[in-house]
Specification:
Blueprint lengths: L1 H14 L3 H4 L5 H8 L3 H17 L3 H9 L1 H19 L4 H29 L4 H30 L2 H7 L2 H16 L10 H8 L4
Helix pairs in contact: 1-7, 1-8, 1-10, 3-4, 4-7, 5-6, 5-7, 6-7, 6-10, 7-8, 8-9
Length: 203
């Protein structure tokens, strides 16, 4: 039962790693019309997110060294939910800020997920890596395909539909909550492995 909950938590977390980014493009024309952004400004939303994905990945091992990988994933899910919720508020600056916060959370979770697989499923790393990778791809495809129909069905507009991304992130956080705070704490992963990777000639 515990293993099933762990797998479900990993899959649901993986499903949240791309919708905040992939779901923006289908709504971009509407966002630009509503906020008065130019095409360059509209494209800047996803640019900000992609830049944050690259820049803030190293935060994950440092955070895991302090609170552990399980709580790092939980924190990432909660921050992601907050970022996409803020992104739907009024004003271009808030839109960019929310996008940056959401992408930073995704960057941290991107790095934490492989470590979590190795920590909890050391004998099934390849299988579980494939499972959560499929979840990432599935989340991206679903958000791109469903965001416009969902907007039409709900009548929420781009702000409401964009903020709905927070819902599955919060559900994933609730599912991961017992793992993060229940039972024996998992060994903490410090930032040293990251420094070793950076210094590697292969890297």
């Amino acid at each position: 039962m515990r293993a099933a909950l762990l797998v479900a938590g990993l899959v649901l977390a993986a499903l949240n790693l791309r919708p905040a980014i992939a779901g923006i493009s289908p709504l971009l024309d509407e966002i630009m019309t509503d906020t008065g952004l130019t095409p360059a400004g509209g494209g800047g939303i996803t640019t900000v997110m992609v830049v944050c994905l690259g820049v803030f990945g190293p935060v994950a091992p440092m955070l895991a060294g302090r609170i552990g990988l399980d709580r790092t994933l939980l924190a990432g899910l909660l921050v992601l939910a907050g970022g996409v919720a803020v992104r739907g508020l009024d004003g271009p600056l808030v839109l960019y800020a929310g996008a940056a916060v959401a992408a930073t959370a995704i960057a941290v979770m991107n790095v934490a997920m492989p470590g979590l697989v190795k920590q909890h499923f050391p004998g099934r790393v390849n299988l579980l890596t494939g499972v959560y990778s499929a979840g990432i791809v599935g989340g991206a495809a679903a958000s791109s395909a469903l965001v416009v129909p969902l907007e039409q069905v709900t009548g929420y507009g781009w702000r409401g539909v964009s903020a709905l991304v927070a819902v599955p992130a919060l559900v994933a956080a609730l599912l991961w909550l017992p793992q993060a705070f229940g039972g024996r704490a998992a060994p903490r992963q410090g930032p040293r492995p990251f420094r070793a990777v950076v210094r590697s000639r292969v890297t």
